[in-house]
Every structure is written in C-alpha cells, then in structure tokens.
Target: V-type ATP synthase subunit E
Amino acid sequence: MAGVEKIKERILEEARAQAEANIKRAEEEAAKIIEEAQKEAAAKKAQILEKAKQEAVDVKKRLKAMAELEARKKKLQARQEVVDEAFNKTIEKLNSLPDREYEEIISQMIVNSVESGSEEIILSPKDKQRISPGFIENINKKLSQKGIDGKIKLSEETKNISGGFILKSGDIEINNSFEAIIRMKREEVEAEVIKALF
Model:
C-alpha cells in the first residue's frame, strides 16, 4: 500500500503544482488585465480631461466673443443715442430761434416749396401764435417776385408738429416739419455727424 500512497501523494503533488501554476498564471493574467484596464482608464481620463480643457477654452472663447459683441452693441447704442440727441437738439435750436429769425427761415422754406402759389400752409398751434400778422403777405410778395402767383393762405387747421409746416394743395399734404426734413436728410448727413462727434 505504500506504493499506492506514494502514487496518491505524487498525484496530489502534481495536482497541487498544477493548481499553483494555474493560480499563478491566472493571477498573472488578472494582473495584466488590471494593468491594461488601469492604463486604458488613465488614457481615457487623460482624454476626458483634455476634452474638458478644450471645451473650457471653447466656452471661454464664446463667452469672450459674446461679451465683445455685447460691448460693441452697447457702444453702437450709445453712439446712436448721441446722434439722435444731436438731431433732436438741431430741431430744438430751430424751434428756439428768435421769432423774427424763425419766421424768416419758415418763410424761405415755404417760398422754396411752393409750386402753384395757391397752396395752404398748416402750422403747429404754437407756430400759428408765433408768426407775425404780415407773415403770409410777405410770402406772397416773395412768390410774386419769383413769378409765382402769390395766393398762399394760412390754414385754419393745425398739426401736431414741433416746427416747420405742412404744405397742402387740395388733398395732398407735403410734410415740411423739421422732424420730417431731419428724418429725410438724416441718412445723407449721419455719417458726417458721426465723424464730427466721434
């Protein structure tokens, strides 16, 4: 039986050795798998961090571009407000001229605008009170000197304009208010005004 025991012992030893070798091989393979997984995880982590950094840079660029755009918009808006104010002040200055000077400007504008000489002049309520009694008569004289039949009349009607006048011929009204003239001329002169202001 000693021979059987030896065989048994030998089989057990070989089985143990085989098991240990298998365990060792499995542990080595597991260690390799873990190492590769760790390397892969580190690489993915680096990729994710790099991507996050790039996204942060992109977000920063976008935010900067948006801030610059907003600053340009505000600057443009401020410029526009200054330009608007300049044009509004022009209207205010015209309206605040001394009555005689104001009347002369309006008179000249009317003479230059009249075509038939029989139009009606519509003023603002304020200007209607402001003009002298001989205002229309003076305009008609100037028209006659230009060879135009001077039969201009001051309308009973008034319009809500800050200054200037409305020239009415039948059903047609031509707006010669300061606001309308400035609005029409603004495009032509705005670039020069901006250049002068800035």
Summary: The CA atoms of residues 113 and 167 lie 8 Å apart.
